[in-house]
Design brief:
With 93 residues, this protein is α+β, with helices and mostly antiparallel strands. It has helices at residues 3-20, 24-30, 35-49, 84-91, and strands at residues 57-59, 65-69, 75-79. 52% of the residues lie in helices and 14% in strands.
């Protein structure tokens, strides 16, 4: 089975599960899929189908802190002296 075929199968199973009303564990068991594997497929499916924001809002220098707001609502206030490498890591999370 090619990677494309696996991806198509995974996508079809996840879509079917979403309308089934079953828990992940129940659905995986009925379809003879390892629960951890199915959970991974769901996370990959969400990652590829959920729209990603075009940018992450950063506020800063005027208040002497850098403010990062992630799409999920988590907010960080960081000192402006934060090392650039650490800031880059936090932005890419």
């Amino acid at each position: 089975m090619s990677i494309r075929e696996k991806r198509d199968r995974m996508s079809a199973l996840v879509a079917d599960w979403q309308t089934s009303g079953m828990s992940q564990r129940e659905y995986a068991s009925i379809h003879n899929i390892n629960h951890s594997t199915f959970s991974y497929w769901i996370s990959q499916h969400r990652r590829t189908t959920d729209p990603q924001p075009a940018f992450i809002q950063i506020g800063g220098a005027v208040t002497q802190s850098i403010h990062i707001r992630y799409p999920n609502g988590v907010e960080l206030k960081l000192p402006v002296q934060i090392p650039v490498g650490l800031l880059r890591t936090l932005v890419l999370l």
